[in-house]
Amino acid sequence: GDEILISGEGYQDDASGTYTGTANALIERPDHVVKHLLAVYGGWAVANFYTNAGSQFASKNYKFAGVINEYKRLKEWLAYLSFQCRCYFRFAEGKAQLLYRPDTITSSRTVTKYMIRMDGGTKKTTLRGPRPSPLANVINKINLHFDRDWDQSGDNAYKGISKDSNSASITKYGEKEKPELFYFDFVTSQAMADDLRAFYINRYKDRKKDYNMEIFLDNVDAKFADGVTIEPAGN
Hints:
This protein is an alpha/beta fold. It has helices at 30-42, 54-60, 74-83, 167-173, 190-204; strands at 49-51, 87-92, 95-100, 107-111, 118-119, 124-125, 128-132, 141-148, 158-165, 183-184, 209-212, 227-230. The strands form five sheets. A three-stranded mixed beta sheet has the order 1-3-2. Strands 9-8-10 form a three-stranded mixed beta sheet.
C-alpha cells in the first residue's frame, strides 16, 4: 500500500539496437519512437517501416519524451506524434511511412499538358484552377505549448511556450489561429519547439493554390507528398 516513486528517462533499446541502431540506447528520436510503437504495440514488422526524416531529426536534435496514458487507436497516436515532428504518417505500399515535411518543396516530376485529359464534349482541358484554398486553413498566430508536466492539467501543465505571428498575413486575412493543434505533449526542447512553430506558421500563413485535373497513367506512380510541377494546358 506504500507509494512507489520511479525516476526514469524512457524506453531503452535492446542489445541489438533494433530501433535506434545503437545497443541499449534510449529510444527518443521521433522516427525511433514511431518505429518502436509500431513494432511493440502494433505488431508491425520493423523491416516494413520507412522514413526519410532520420537525418533531419539527427541534425536538428529532435527528441521526444512523454507518456501514453490514454487509449487511442494506433493510427491516431501515429498522426498525433507525426504532427509534433513536422511529418506526415501513412500506410502505403505495404510500408508504414513517416515522411518529413521540408521548408521548401522540391518538384520530382512535371505534369505536362499532354498528360492532362481534355473533355471530349467541350474540347477544353479538365485542368481547373488555381483557386485559393479555404480561408479556414490559414494559421498566422501560434502559441505552441510544450514540456508537459504530467501531474498537471490544462495550460498549467505546459512549462514552455513558443510564440509567433505573421503581421502581413494578419493584415490580409485577419488574425487566424487554431490553439487546439499546438499542445505538443512529447516535445521538451525550446529549440525543437521554436523550429516546429516557425515551420507551421510559414506553411499555413497564406492561402495556397488549389488545382483539379484528370490525368493519364503517366503519373500513376506519383506518391503521397511528392512535389509536382504543372505545365498549363492552355486552351
